[in-house]
């Protein structure tokens, strides 16, 4: 009998769900973290990256050898660069120049072409440039912000995994909001199983710069976002997100990024308000792609 070994694409998803041991404190609640940094390219974005390419292929919109274009703040770009390498596409990624060196290096390692816009132009400028390159015939924009294949990845994988891993006990789901694909897809699935599950989204406070999440201007609000699918939005300060991120590494052994620290900080707040609840937060990436920022340096 011929052994069937998995490919790297088969290793996306089915990430662990682990319990907080110290940060939770004395509580009747169960606080759980979904470790998306365990995906092959290191973040939750591996799921929609493969989904967007595979589903576009199945519709005949793209074929191997084509050039794909995407605006990204980092994690989606790394995931798409990996997925393009797996499936045989050229990848152009457009990102603000203040993204971490680790993110830029990872994208280049997978063979992607990087185009940088200024910090002031930001993600809005990157998104505009992606559309312009497509109009100029440089390639096809996947557009994670308006592409239904983004939340569909979480509706078909992340949400079902959480439901199964908690044996249907999840009462609160907490996720940072960037493209909003994770929270939209998980919300749809979890609410179908139990409409009482509370969906909590995280956004940065005015003036906070938390990588991967945004307070979008109305004209740039992701088209996949449906406010009716989020029960509560928590504003998070940069300091609280960073402090919680460092505590996760030092007190729990969970090494993650700033937006994940914010999601756990929001979960700890919520845990003070409820009893006998099962709260699940998304740890969307790993901390090693933030080392050059100095955020983990001894204080």
Automatic annotation (TrEMBL):
Catalytic activity from the UniProt record: O-acetyl-L-serine + hydrogen sulfide = L-cysteine + acetate
Residues that bear N6-(pyridoxal phosphate)lysine: 45
Source organism superkingdom: Bacteria
Pfam families per UniProt: PALP
Key words of the record: Amino-acid biosynthesis, Cysteine biosynthesis, Pyridoxal phosphate, Transferase
Residues engaged in binding pyridoxal 5'-phosphate: 75, 178-182, 259
Gene3D superfamilies: 3.40.50.1100
Domain called Tryptophan synthase beta chain-like PALP: residue spans: 9-285
PROSITE patterns with a match to the protein in the record: CYS_SYNTHASE
EC number: 2.5.1.47
Any one Gene Ontology molecular-function term assigned to this protein's record: cysteine synthase activity
Enzyme class: transferase
Record InterPro entries: Cys_synth, Cys_Synth/Cystath_Beta-Synth, CysM, P-phosphate_BS, TrpB-like_PALP, TrpB-like_PALP_sf
Metabolic or biological pathway, per its Swiss-Prot or TrEMBL entry: Amino-acid biosynthesis; L-cysteine biosynthesis; L-cysteine from L-serine: step 2/2
Biological-process GO terms, alphabetical: cysteine biosynthetic process from serine
Cofactor: pyridoxal 5'-phosphate
NCBIfam families recorded: cysKM, cysM, PRK11761.1
Family as reported in the entry's similarity comment: Belongs to the cysteine synthase/cystathionine beta-synthase family.
Record protein name field: Cysteine synthase
Organism of this sequence: Pseudomonas parafulva
